[in-house]
Amino acid sequence: MKKTIITVRHTESEHHVKNFSGGVSYWNLTALGKDQAFKVGKWLSENESLDDFKMFSSDLPRTFQTAQEICKLVPLKIETTERLREIDLGEGNGIPYDEYDKLISPKPEIYDPNHRSFPHAENDTELWARMKSFYNSILESDENDFILVSHGGALLFLHLVITGKTLDDIRNDYYFGKAGAISKFVIDEGKCFVEYLNKNVI
Asked: Would the pTM of this model clear 0.90, i.e. be above it?
C-alpha cells in the first residue's frame, strides 16, 4: 500500500533563544516561532493536497504549538503522541547549556549507540527503536497519508529509518533539518522515494 509521509521540525522555541537544552522539556514557541509555523502551514496549503492526511504531533508544547499554527491553514485534527518526543536527555533536559556542558558524559572516541549522555538519558539504540516502532505503526495503519510534527533529533532518526539507513548514518548532517524544515517521503511497494528533504520554507 502506498504511503505518503510529511515531516515538520518545530519552529523557534524559547529554549533556542534562552540558551537552554531541549530534550523532554516544556518550552513554548517564541512569537517568531509561531510566525514561522504559520508560514510552514501556508507553504503546505499552497503546495500539497492534504485533505486526507492524518496529523501526529509530539505532545511537548513547542511541537504541539507548531502543529496548531500549521492547522490554521491546513485544517486537520492533531493527535499528540509521546512517541514523537525529542530524545530524553534525563538530567540534561531543559537546563542551561553552561550547566549542561559540565554534566554531560563525553562521547566515546568510537561511536557507541548505547552511550548515555546523562545517567538517565535515552540512548541512540532506544531512540532508534522508538522511531522504528512508530514508523512500523504507520506502515501497518489503514490510513495512507501522514504529517508528523516532531523535533530535530527525533526526526534525524526517523528520516534514517524511513529511508532504510542505519544508526551509523546519524553522523550525516544531510538528514538533520533546521527549525521549520519540511520533508516528504513516498513509500511504494517497499521502496522509499524522497520528494524533498529538510526544505526550508520560512
From this structure: yes
